Amino acid sequence: MSDFSRFVSQHKAALIVSAVVGVTTVAGTVYYLNQQKQLPPTPPPSSKKSKNKRKKQNKKKKAEAKATLYPVDPQTGLPKITDEIVNTLSDEEKSSWALSLKESGNEYFKKKDFETAIAYYTNALQCRIDPVFYANRSACYAALDKDDKVVEDTTEALKINPSYNKCLLRRAHAYENMEKYPDAMFDLTALTIHGGMSDHSNEVMLERVLKKHSLRIDQEEYSNLPKELPSASSLSSFFGAFAPPDIDLDESKYEESTGARFLVQGLNKVDLDTPEAYDEADVLFNQAISKFESDVDADKKMAALAYEYKGAFDFLKTDSENGVIALNKSLELSPRPRAHVILGLIRADKSDAKGANEEFEAAVKLNDSDPDIYYHFGQMFYLVGDLASAQSNFEKAKKLNPNNVYAYIQLACIAYRQGDAAACDELFKEAKLKFPTSPEVPNYYGEILFDRQNFQGAERQFDTAARLQQALPTFNIGCLPLINKSAIYQREGNVDKCVETLEAACELDSKSDVARSTLGQIYLQLQKVDEAIKLFEEACKLSRSVEERTQCISLMEASKMQLKIREDPILSQKVEEILRQAGVVPQA
Ligand SMILES: *[C@@H]1O[C@H](CO)[C@@H](O)[C@H](O)[C@H]1NC(C)=O
Ligand SMILES: *[C@@H]1O[C@H](CO)[C@@H](O)[C@H](O)[C@H]1NC(C)=O
Ligand SMILES: *[C@@H]1O[C@H](CO)[C@@H](O)[C@H](O)[C@H]1NC(C)=O
Ligand SMILES: *[C@@H]1O[C@H](CO)[C@@H](O)[C@H](O)[C@H]1NC(C)=O
């Protein structure tokens, strides 16, 4: 799946146009995209031929031009051309005046006297309407940073010659400067289509514009959404990797409506590991804190635990600012290693490796046999690719908390990344024996088998994972086995099964952005563009980081562009032609 998304993001320009017509399967699209490079070059736009002819004419007329065909203002030395004068000319004369004026415009352009060049081109246009004159004048406006004038002139030129590439590109640059990104994207896509889709030279610009556009949409529409908890599967893997709290979890032992009671209720909800229970826990921890705040005699250790969980929830909601406040408070009341660990994660999240290290050291200082420290320390090493340090930390975590299934899985993954497939198999086998009902073990084993190109084996593991998950009352990994299984169907080109599986994944986990953006991409291939856009929109709202969100927004905006191209009669016909030539769609 990740290969596929990389593929998609690398071929966005092609993707934008690929679903416009005809392509009905994923395999078909991939085929079509691969075909692109072999397409015969499209004939150059017709304007070129006439340009050459005109050039010859120009040479002939040049001598006459020097003697000025047209009246000149003696004071300014500029042509003095009015509509009245032009009306008296024959068509022949209009043409030769126009060409002569244009020639002079070109000379002033070369001398970088853009204002004068503009005057000449304007006069040329008075004598004869020609897209080239508009194009030339737009080049002057571009040099003068008059973007709105650039758009005006290129638009006039494109009305006459819709495949005038120079104008499309120039207008795209102007639109980009004016921050009218969708308009710029449309022109760049049109450019790609007119170039027979074999020209990839504008993809860099298209990517850049799409990125700017996505970041702006993110800023305007998504960055201020209320901070919400992530999918229960993320919460499950986060809390599942921690040792259980060392307090009595029997709610009846605590007086009703006290901070301690709310806290223990919250902890028990976390233990239930369902989406609803996590939402309830979130409320309960806040209730616990407001009780602890007003109770000076409250048990400091219990209060610290409440703040610690609130800090963890804030972190998981990507509200790290409030997370730090709560965790600081927790440490102030009664220091526990885990508060430092979460602070370390928050700092690592902000790419503050040194700060993260300090927090982990502080945690070790408090209790060097706390398993929570080593698991997360190991993960950080794993993420930066220091496998040896990751391994020793996971070993320690596994020894100190033998119930942490993730430590086993990570160790097996490390063995695989170190190139020892046999050790990896062995470690997964050990994990399976120790955690026979865990859907995590077969799911991650399946991912490794997939990577090893053992697709049958992977499919079996994903099936087992999905079955185990279904039998559990807890959420664990939720729809992950289904998402992963869809990758197998996709590989096989079994689009129906792929869609079916991903639709089930979306239903199973109402907060899975991955399920939604993956299904959206499949819909896009199936030309269900409206449905795709809807899913990308949902995925945007659900995704956790700016990077994930802008990726979703990019897909969404690229899809909207597809609709726009589809509505353009000239472009959609051109795409159809190209696809037919490439043999992707049957000859009409
Ligand atoms: C004017 O247009 C012609 C034909 O497209 C081109 O060759 C020439 O470079 C243009 N001049 C300027 C200043 O853009
Ligand atoms: C949290 O505590 C650290 C260390 O004492 C301190 O540097 C930081 O400013 C505190 N942050 C907040 C938001 O209280
Ligand atoms: C350190 O953590 C371990 C494991 O949670 C625990 O058994 C031990 O009592 C803790 N030691 C101290 C000094 O808190
Ligand atoms: C399985 O799903 C995870 C999470 O969405 C993803 O990172 C991974 O690439 C998937 N693996 C395969 C083989 O699709």
From TrEMBL:
Pfam families: TPR_2, TPR_8. One of its GO terms (cellular component) is mitochondrial outer membrane. It is a single-pass membrane protein. TPR repeats lie at residues 371-404, 513-546. Residues 36-66 are annotated as: Disordered. Residues 48-63 have a biased composition (Basic residues). This is Unnamed protein product. It comes from Ambrosiozyma monospora (Yeast).
